[in-house]
Design a protein that fits this description.
mainly alpha, 91% helix, rod-shaped, 67 residues
């Protein structure tokens, strides 16, 4: 009989823990989405800077400034 009571008590104690784990899982999912958005923006910025550096390199070559 005591074993049955322990099982009931342990299952009752797991409910708040399960709720907390669900909240943390949602928070991690939101963090992953924000990270993906940030990485996409970072890729765009790096791409634009690279493009501008290539254009400036060719411009300087055409004008005879570059080696």
């Amino acid at each position: 009989m005591k074993k049955r009571l322990r099982k009931k008590n342990s299952s009752l104690n797991l409910f708040p823990l399960q709720k907390q784990l669900e909240k943390e899982a949602e928070e991690v999912e939101r963090w992953i989405i924000e990270r993906k958005k940030f990485l996409k923006k970072l890729a765009w910025v790096v791409g634009i800077i690279t493009f501008l550096l290539i254009i400036s390199h060719f411009y300087l070559r055409v004008n005879g400034v570059g080696v």
